[in-house]
Amino acid sequence: MNPADAQLPLRLWTETAGRGLLSAVWGVKTSGLEQVPRSGALIVACNHVSLLDPVLLYAAIGPARRPYSLAKKELFENPVLGWFFRGVGTIPLDRGGDATTAMRAALDVLGKGGCLAIYPEGTRVAPGESRRPKAGVSFLAARSRAPVVPVRLVGTERFPLVFPLEVRFGRPMPSPETEGREAELAYARSVMDAVYSL
């Protein structure tokens, strides 16, 4: 296991408990995990439809990597939830204001060779809806030179009525070669295209 990943006691416990419960009750079908690099800086880009998504992603990718993640800062306003999210390796992100602190923390994770999970659309998006992805995934990939692994979660929008839940990992995408707003948005769209093609 990559030592630069989130080797946090609460994270390990949550990941193990989540994997055990989801596998035993709902079943988890994972494909493409062998394509996830086991070392080095890595960004995992995922669709987001449910509050269950981080738990399912952590449970599925855990045998290969343990990513840190970004989440809206509002989740940290409750002291108990804030303690929990920090304990599992979540970085607070101000989606409507200054994201500098979160981006620096994310780049620090990647600079140490760690793994970072990100939801490029920036919020939950129901199946069939379309939302323009944010440029954050491009910004982080360009500055860290980290490859991006697209991941699609299937079934979480209908949890707990779906058996089994699915996690599909795609091939790593190289970081973008060009910078600038339009290039960053184009790269972000290509990442989400790869996610939804899985």
Give a written overview of the molecule.
- The protein is α/β, with parallel strands linked by helices.
- 37% of the residues lie in helices and 17% in strands.
- It is built from 6 helices and 7 strands.
- It has helices at 9-26, 53-61, 79-87, 100-111, 136-144, 181-197, and strands spanning 28-31, 42-46, 68-72, 90-93, 115-118, 148-154, 165-169.
- A 7-stranded mixed sheet has the order 1-7-6-2-5-3-4, sandwiched between helices.
- Helix 3 links the parallel strand 3 (68-72) and strand 4.
- Helix 1 (9-26) crosses helix 2 (53-61).
- The longest helix has 18 residues, at 9-26.
Task: Describe the structure concisely.
The chain has helices spanning 9-26, 53-61, 79-87, 100-111, 136-144, 181-197, and strands spanning 28-31, 42-46, 68-72, 90-93, 115-118, 148-154, 165-169. The chain is α/β, with parallel strands linked by helices. Strands 1-7-6-2-5-3-4 form a seven-stranded mixed beta sheet, sandwiched between helices.
